[in-house]
Amino acid sequence: MSNVQNALPDADVRGSSSEANLSRRSFLKASAAVGGGLILSLNLPFEASEAGASESNDFVPNALIRIDGNGQIFLTMPYIEMGQGTYTAIPMLIAEELEVGLDQVRLEHAPPNEKLYANPLLGVQATGNSNAMRGAWKPMREAGATARMMLVAAAASKWGVDATTCRAEGGAVIHADTGRRLAYGALAGAAASMPVPQNVALKSPGDFKLIGKPVKRLDTPAKVNGTAIYGIDARPPGVKVATLAQSPAFGGRLKSVDDSAALSVKGVRQVVRLEDAVAVVADHMGAAKKGMEALKIEWDDGPHAALATEDIARELDKATMGQGAVAQNIGDVDKAMAGAAMKVEATYQIPFLAHAPMEPMNCTVHWQKDQCEIWIGTQAIARVQAMAAQAAGLPAEKVIVHNHLLGGGFGRRLEADGAVRAVEIAKKVDGPVKVVWTREEDIQHDLYRPYWFDRLSAGLDDEGRPVAWKNRFAGSSVIARWLPPGFKDGLDPDSTEGAIDLVYDLPNVHVEYVRVEPAAIATGFWRSVGPSHNVFVTESFIDELAAAAKEDPVAYRRALLDKSPRAKAVLDLAAEKAGWKEALPAGRGRGVSLQFVFGSYMAQVAEVEVAKDGTVKLQRIVCAMDCGTAVNPDTIEAQIESGIIFGATAALYGEITLKNGRVEQTNFDTYQMLRINEAPAIEVHVVKSAEAPGGMGETGTSAVVPAIANAIFAATGTRLRKMPVDPSLLKRA
Amino acid sequence: MAVAIKVNGITHSVDVDDDTPLLWVLRDVLGMTGTKFGCGMALCGACTVQIDGVATRSCITTVDSLGQSEITTIEAIGATPAGAQIQKAWLDHEVPQCGYCQSGQIMSASALIASNPHPTDADIDDAMSGNICRCGTYVRIREAIKSAAQSGANGG
To answer: Taking each helix axis from N to C terminus, what angle separates A633-652 and A699-716, rounded to the nearest 10 degrees?
Structure first.
């Protein structure tokens, strides 16, 4: 049975705490629960860099640990599960320090509450940017250790013995000398009135019983027997099913609809007209789709009716010839360039990409005059609540959001557009309505990974070493739209990650970013976000420099890593495991990539075979990773396999193009996914480390794209500076 | 006109148009949500069920085409020997991530090993390449099918 509950935590319990006693550093608060239990509330940061905020004076808890009278431990945390294993790895941290089995920790979805669950710096309740484990690592273990010490103190006080003579084990406190034993359940009430310890000693890695061991995920059983409930599976009583068509051209409007044929389809109940969309409401999706096909819709394509991808690329190209905001400057790049023995220049482009999670966008809404209830799977529940409230014309507290498992997030479910659409439709429907997007709508009305255009140049000395590195790139800033305060002085931390602070020791570096928002097309976070762009560009370009210097790509990188031993170690490991120096038959090649993003070091070696017709077959990907402490090694391996397939899919196939103001791709026939018969063998090697954990959900994706491009270069001599791979450029006689 | 269909051994009479895809009857009419919608065009395999033991995309299979066929869905596949072996292998290998496509993967995989107890890599490619997994669990799917086939060969 799964321990993962979809239920909201018991509001009575949460609101009933009393006699709060705060620890000195105010990161953690203990209180008693009604019915005799212990509640610890704490703050988990959403940004790894924000760890210090939990020590500020303003205590804003966003996670709760409750131990009830039966010794059951409930954890309410703000991060969500979308396949990345958070629902297992975060409870492991608590269980480890609390000395309980993982099966004693029950997880509950956090309800939307921007005040309670928000990141104090950013003001958002969201799971993204590979930051859940990075944020939770220290505070979660400290909370577990605090609870353990308070339970031990309660037992010691009951027995009239010194706390140091007691130990916690298997969900109970044991008095070593007398063998007396009290289960946590019997102690939880008394523990709440114990003082919160000022300093807690965390276990040393050598004593870990759970952390670092491959642990079975808690959400797996329900996912193999059809009982796992995703947003699309919500079925409130009386629910109708709707599907929608949004203006095919971005910025277009609905001109007219003839719905007479649609309304005569069996099961069709209603046709809803919005300004820029139309929906068919029916008893089931089959009828809704049939009704939609029967509609005669006329659109006004609006001001962007002629827009094409080429127009956007041209605009970005032009922008890279102007000035941008300086993201990083080291030394004097122009002077170094002038004195260089050789100069290398290149431009790179990467396309718009749709997320295409397997669960198409959907949202169920029951709108009433004084209340709105929503069923959805979202990475950003408070955003959904806030934006849905606006659309519903209700205060946020009148909008109840039930979160569910996500059938893939990848950044798509950080957005609330689907919830807003569903509310707009539900306002015209009597009773609950589930709005399910067709795959075509899902692909054609995404918020896309931005198109980026990059212009790079480098100067090499007479030994081929890079003495100057210049990079100016242009594209959309997702942060500027999604989280406006995050965009400052023309820069944001996402757009530049992977383009600055390179692992290589370069004496003169100058990096500029030019924010250009293309007309009409909205952009969004896409798995591995900024690094999905920057790592491809920087790792392709360093490969070009190695080629210009006539050096081996691994040796060339390695010579620049004296100041980054962790980067050098993963590079060496990947090269060794991949058999980097071993000869390959004609038509095959190996390519390498190296990155430090999301707080983790990774190197990959891709081995590809390029057929005479230019078709690329991925043979094998070898990945070496140093992500600090590997909390759940099996999940880490799974996430890297996943990220590699996600990135490889983009490298070989991923491209959203615009023509006549609309997206040309429609479904998995024109927006292709890598399939099992095309999947490479993947080897993951994780470096043992006691450092704090880095992120890993997105790292595989950004690293694999340049590894593939570099392998294609090794196999064919053709440098691909534009993704996805174009086989016509790789044809041989 | 009502149509009678037999799902997991139970006959249901459903009042839908003859050309309604089975997927929506399962999900929206009968409330069996384990079978998933992914593309609506038999391109992704998320909606895979078994019809008389054959892996079939329910999103393009109309109810009037079913006749007396036995439809098996993810909710009941564990009751078949092949389904139970595949589910166990999926747990042992921790195959699912987001899990959304896994109903379809399991339906395809259990149809494969029921008809071919010793699938080769090429057999696995043939049987499974119609099922997309956006989380990229392919490495584990392949391993799990092989170990399920192994356990079946050893008497389960």
So the answer is: 50
Burial A224-245 (b: 16+ CB within 10 A, else e): bbbebbbbbbbbeeebbbbbbb
pLDDT tens digits, B117-139:
999 999 999 999 999 999 999 99
d(CA A536, CA A650): 12
Q: Is the dihedral of CA A247, A251, A252, A253 positive or negative?
A: positive
- CB–CB of B20 and A360 under 8 A? no
Q: Is the Cβ of B87 closer than 8 Å to some Cβ of chain A?
A: yes
Q: Which residues contact A498 (CB under 8 A, 6 or more apart)?
A: A530, A531, A533, A534, A535, A538, A595, A597, A702
Q: Is A634 on the interface with B (CB under 8 A)?
A: yes
For chain B, the straight-line distance linking the first and the last C-alpha, in angstroms and rounded, comes to 44
| Residue B150: Cβ within 10 Å count | 13
Average pLDDT, integer, range A17-45: 64
Q: Around Cβ A180, how many Cβ atoms within 10 Å?
A: 14
Least Cα separation, residue A22 to chain B (angstroms) = 38
pLDDT digits (tens, 9 = 90+) for B17-33: 999 999 999 999 999 99
Mean pLDDT of B48-55: 98
Find, among A250, A519, A533, A525, the residue nearest to A415 by Cα: A525
| B130 vs B108: CA distance, rounded Å | 9
Q: Which of helix, strand or coil describes residue A38?
A: strand
* B96 closest CB neighbour out of A220, A235, A266: A220
Phi, psi at A25, each rounded to 5°: -85, 0
Nearest to B103 by CA among B37, B152, B15: B37
> For helices A529-548 and A699-716, what crossing angle results, to 10°?
30
The interaxial angle of helices B138-153 and B121-128, nearest 10 deg, is 120
CA angle at A424 for the pair A422 and A430, rounded to the nearest 5°: 85
* Whether A408 and B100 lie within 8 Å, measured CB to CB: yes
Q: CA–CA separation, A409 vs A397, rounded Å?
A: 25
Q: Please work out, in degrees rounded to the nearest 5, the angle formed at the alpha carbon of residue A511 by the alpha carbons of A510 and A516.
A: 150
Residue labelled with tokens 């990188």? A557
pLDDT tens column, A695-704? 888 899 999 9
Of A224, A241, A438, the CB nearest to B28: A241
Long-range contacts of A308-312 (CB under 8 A, 24+ apart): A308/A657, A308/A658, A308/A659, A308/A660, A309/A351, A309/A352, A309/A451, A309/A657, A309/A658, A309/A659, A312/A451, A312/A518, A312/A519, A312/A521, A312/A658
Query: In this structure, which amino acid lies at residue A272?
Result: V
Interface test with B, best of A235, A290, A358, A361 (most B CBs within 10 A): A358
Residue A540's φ and ψ, nearest 5 degrees, are -75, -40
Task: Using CA coordinates, name the residue in chain B closest to A214.
Answer: B94
Q: Across A463-543, where does the E strand assignment appear?
A: 466-475, 509-515
H-type alpha helices, A162-239 = 184-191, 220-224
Burial group, residue A370, by CB count within 10 angstroms (0-12, 13-18, 19+): exposed
Half-sphere exposure of B39 (CA within 13 A, CB side): 25
Residue B102, min C-alpha distance to chain A (Å): 7
Cβ pair B110, B126 in contact under 8 A: no
Peptide bond into A91 cis (omega under 30): no
Q: Mean pLDDT, to the nearest integer, of A231-257?
A: 98
CA distance A573 to A41: 42
HSE-CB of B100 using CA atoms within 13 angstroms: 32
The residue written with tokens 């564990």 in the block is: B78
Q: What are the percentages of helix, strand and coil residues in chain A, rounded to 5? A: 35, 25, 40
Contact A217 B94 (CB under 8 A): yes
